[in-house]
Amino acid sequence: MAKITLDNLAHSYLPKPQSEDDYALKELNHDWQDGAAYALLGSSGCGKSTLLNIISGLLRPSQGRILFNDRDVTDAPTAERNIAQVFQFPVVYDTMTVRDNLAFPLRNRGRDEAYVAERVQEIGAMIGMEHMLDRRARGLTADAKQKISLGRGMVRKDVNALLFDEPLTVIDPHMKWELRTQLKKLHHDFGHTMIYVTHDQTEALTFADKVVVMYDGRVVQIGTPEELFQTPEHTFVGYFIGSPGMNVIPAEVNGATARIEGTELRLKRGYGDLSGKVELGVRPEFARLSRTEGLPVTVRRVEDVGRHKLVRAEVFGHDINIIADEDDDVSADMTHVVFDTDFVNVYANDWRVPGEAA
Amino acid sequence: MEKTVNQKAWFLVLPVLILVAFSAVIPLMTVVNYSVQDTFGNNQFFWAGLEWFAEMLESERMWNALGRQLMFSAIILAIEIPLGIYVALHMPKSGFWSSFCLVLMSLPLLIPWNVVGTIWQIFGRVDIGLLGYTLDALGISYNYTQDTLDAWITIIVMDVWHWTSLVALLAFAGLKSIPDAYYQAAKIDQASRWKVFRFIELPKMMGVLMIAILLRFMDSFMIYTEPFVVTGGGPGNATTLLSIDLVKMALGQFDLGPAAAFSIMYFLVILLVSWVFYTVMTNLDKQEG
């Protein structure tokens, strides 16, 4: 197991990148702590698979270095890095038995048969497939195949990190939970460094200690699920995470006062004089309807989703979502919306402004 | 689900039945007709029963032709299949050169058989052919019209030249369908090049390779035009393959009865082999699912 350091890393698929836009992965410095479980979250094409392939050595970065336990491995081939990777589509060797599949990485590294047999038995038990070790891998279900490819990764004791590239995409919904729980348990029991790429926020938030959110080739925030929820550093994090995402409303901010189309709003903190694109970000959970106080609002639609009601509304022509409790009043005379000032974030040019205590 | 039964549906099959009847069944029946009768000219026919079949089964000439035919098919399969796979493995996977290779390789497939025969017939001639003349000038004795081995080498090389592309194109299609993840996983598992081929590429190519083998076997087993144009079956009977011998017998000697009996057996052999292949292939598919 290892700490993985990304030092000034960037990658472009073009041979001679001119501007920042040419980079699929923009400059990045980050330490992946040994033994932690990370999720790399972002919409498709945001560079998360590029980053994963750089870590696994399938891609050489066009700039910067990558270090495993402070050893430079930028030019080391995949095999030498001793990592394991589980791909989106399960990769198994069809003609081999489950046992031979699991033994394959060890045999290729010339380990003796007694050790191989012992490890395969252990891993077979770990992934819950000991009873079908002698079956051919061909014709197994997708989730069984995915377990085999996970097992093939974990069979080597000295593996530096386990990488997952959207491993649950082709798995049936009811098996997804089971596999995710199993992964979490394996991480807990064995403490591998794990990096899990996904575009599914539920997967990321339930799996990882720390979530790395990527947007347009850039890491926009690294944080615990709670941090991502309460203080999104970038408006993208705000509306990508959460269901529905954060409301973003253009405003003018002066000190501790925000002005939305002339209506004033007190803020918890002071922000000085902000210029450029200034917006307020409020999660639907921290907004509530009111009769008299707050901003004037026009309710368009109320969706009852069981646990709570989802109010689709409009503030000065901007769509916003409000989550109201089951027994909250959403009648026609609720013409205003109030934000919980503790959880109103201010964004300048999409990035969060921390502000000073007022 | 309950199936509706409607006997009128048979009418929908009728056009196909008529077409197949006229294109295959009726011509075949005339052959069957000849195979059980004898004639002394004058359009007079006498019932011969299975006599011709019995005679053919004992005919050394036919067994020799069958032996040569099997040897020919076996040799070209043994060369074309591995060579085709080898070529496919070394072709550029994408980009301009990939398309270029594909076009270049399809060229031999577009040339009519008798033209291929003519090309090699001239190519191999010692007096004016580039190949024959060069070999001769290098002091290698080569003469496909007189030397049995030279004749065989010539028709085999010609067939390999003509048809390896087909195998390569099919194998290439099989290779292209393998997702990148397999190769990446193999790298991570530290699999050697041979193991990548043995455990990833070959299993994934199996389906198309079966089709390639079947096509090449049937085609080579029925080959007529190319060797006929190059060697005419000679020297002696050295390259007289089945269909060449059949034509000699039927049209050269006008032995319609024996030739017809033999055609039917020839046909049955091909049918049998195709059936075996079909069964093996569908079983492979079942295992896949």
Question: How does this model look, in words?
Answer:
Chain B: Belongs to the binding-protein-dependent transport system permease family. Chain B: It is found in: Cell membrane. Chain B: One of its GO terms (biological process) is transmembrane transport. The complex is a heterodimer of chains A (358) and B (289). With 358 residues, chain A is of the alpha+beta class. Chain A has two domains: 4-235, P-loop containing nucleotide triphosphate hydrolases (Rossmann fold, 3-Layer(aba) Sandwich), CATH 3.40.50.300; 243-357, OB fold (Dihydrolipoamide Acetyltransferase, E2P). Chain A has helices spanning 48-56, 78-81, 98-108, 113-126, 142-154, 173-190, 201-207, 225-230, 235-240, and strands at residues 4-11, 25-32, 37-41, 63-68, 71-72, 83-86, 161-165, 194-198, 210-215, 218-223, 247-250, 252-254, 257-260, 263-266, 269-270, 278-282, 287-290, 295-296, 298-304, 308-315, 318-325, 336-339, 344-348, 351-353, 356-357. In chain A, the strands form seven sheets. A six-stranded mixed sheet of chain A has the order 6-7-8-3-9-10, with helices on both faces. In chain A, 42% of the residues are buried. The mean pLDDT of chain A is 85. Chain B has one domain: MetI-like fold, CATH 1.10.3720. The model of chain B has no long low-confidence stretch (mean pLDDT 86). Helix content of chain B is 74%, strand content 2%. In chain B, helix 3 crosses helix 7, helix 3 (60-89) packs antiparallel against helix 9 (193-221) and helix 9 runs antiparallel to helix 12. Chain B contains twelve helices and two strands. In chain B, strand 1 and strand 2 form a beta hairpin. Chain B is mainly alpha-helical. At the A-B interface, strand 6, helix 3 and helix 5 of A face helix 8 and helix 9 of B.
